[in-house]
Design goal:
Blueprint lengths: L4 H9 L4 E11 L8 E4 L5 E3 L7 H14 L3 E6 L5 H4 L5 E10 L7 H9 L4 E8 L9 E4 L7 E2 L4 H16 L4 E5 L10 E8 L4 E5 L3 H12 L3 E6 L15 E4 L2 H10 L8 E4 L4 H11 L7 E4 L3 H13 L4 H4 L2 E2 L11 H17 L16
Parallel strand pairs: 11-12, 11-14, 12-13, 14-15, 15-16
Antiparallel strand pairs: 1-2, 1-5, 2-3, 4-5, 6-7, 6-10, 7-8, 9-10
């Protein structure tokens, strides 16, 4: 919903009914991830996408029907259906799409959710998308971290307790997915499906070293949806003017800044750390901190083979274990034959993506099997 939220909020504020279609589950080589959303507006406008164009026409028509009836619908689209090619899902994937009517009466919590997302406060929405009792379908509960206010109910304390506990685990990792329970929230049952849409703060990319390569990495990181911080101890180089794509530019010793951010709880399992200084007085103390962090998505360090070997020796002398050193990607990036700062930034981004999703970095034309892991 995040990608269509601004337009949705405009219609919601005007109390104009909208159909919102959300991908709640994918199978095989599906084109979009769970959480991808499409709106059918009151004036017939389509906003967003659930399949990159494959089934939008069919979803649009279903959205119009749902706005008219007010009854939510869970619909599957895929090659297993006789009508698969008729609706256009020729990629070989399967999508479960939940379509619901959204207006101020059916979704009164939307304003608070939007405020949380805008303020970068973690929030998740758990919606019943399938249930033996049709009256339960479409119910939702808004979940926030431990100690924060929970809004709404799925129908019983047992259901709420089971779902809230699981949702908080997903929210901590910024994950959206469908969970299954018994009709009253039984963990070993079946029949009730709940889609959890998590809106965790935007993941961070920390770029250390105020050099030309850092400017290119900051641009690519911002394009990928990261909140980018550039940090360097040298104030003459670390300026907002030199790094306009960065969300913030910090003048501090890199290791001290990273340790402080970790202590403040602002580093998590989605954070990408790019060390571009290739100067031992900066990067060795920094990597001592980074490689000992409990949860980080990616740690990469720039440098030649000689620099890498010297860096490893210094880190071993500093007491880092072989297991800790295996977390380091160095020299940084995939082998794309990159030469310019921009090309190097793409190779770094490619390695981060491959690390995140388990990709091997090989040309897809050389592989067999599913495109999407």
């Amino acid at each position: 919903m995040r990608e269509v939220l601004n337009r949705l909020l405009e219609w919601w504020n005007a109390d104009q009914p909208v159909a919102m279609a959300t991908v709640v589950a994918t199978f095989k080589s599906a084109p979009r991830l769970p959480g991808a959303a499409m709106l059918v507006g009151p004036d017939g406008e389509a906003v967003g996408s659930v399949s990159g164009g494959c089934v939008e026409g069919a979803v649009y028509q279903l959205g119009e029907e749902v706005v008219a009836s007010g009854a939510p619908v869970l619909q599957r689209y895929g090659v297993s259906d006789e009508s698969a090619f008729a609706v256009g899902l020729t990629c070989g994937g399967i999508l479960d799409v939940f379509v619901e009517r959204v207006d101020r009466s059916s979704y009164p919590e939307l304003g608070e959710i939007a405020a949380d997302i805008e303020a970068q406060r973690p929030v998740a929405v758990a919606t019943v998308v399938a249930h033996p009792d049709p009256a339960r379908v479409g119910r939702r509960i808004v979940v926030r971290p431990e100690g924060a206010v929970i809004t709404g109910t799925l129908g019983s304390d047992r259901m709420d307790d089971a779902v809230v506990d699981d949702v908080r685990g997903l929210l901590a990792n910024g994950r959206s997915e469908t969970l299954e329970y018994g009709p009253d929230g039984q963990r070993r049952g079946a029949g009730m499906r709940v889609f959890v849409s998590s809106y965790a703060p935007v993941p961070r990319m920390l770029v250390f070293g105020a050099i030309d390569f850092a400017a290119a990495v900051a641009r690519v990181g911002s394009f990928l949806g990261y909140r980018v911080t550039v940090c360097d101890a040298r104030g003459v180089f670390a300026t907002a003017t030199r790094f306009p794509s960065a969300d913030e530019v910090v003048v501090d010793w890199p290791h001290r800044y990273l340790a402080a951010e970790s202590a403040a709880g602002r580093i998590d399992g989605r954070t990408a750390i790019c060390v571009l200084t290739h100067d031992p007085k900066f990067d060795v103390p920094l990597l001592e901190v980074a490689l000992r962090l409990p949860e980080v998505a990616y740690i990469g360090a720039m440098g030649s083979r000689r620099t890498h070997d010297d860096r490893l020796k210094r880190l071993q002398e500093a007491g880092l274990t072989d297991e800790e050193l295996t977390r380091l990607s160095s020299p940084i990036g995939l082998d794309l034959g990159a030469r310019t700062p921009e090309e190097t930034a793409i190779s770094i981004a490619a390695e981060i993506i491959a690390t995140t999703w388990g990709g091997a970095g090989h040309p897809l034309s050389h592989l067999t099997g599913p495109i999407h892991h």
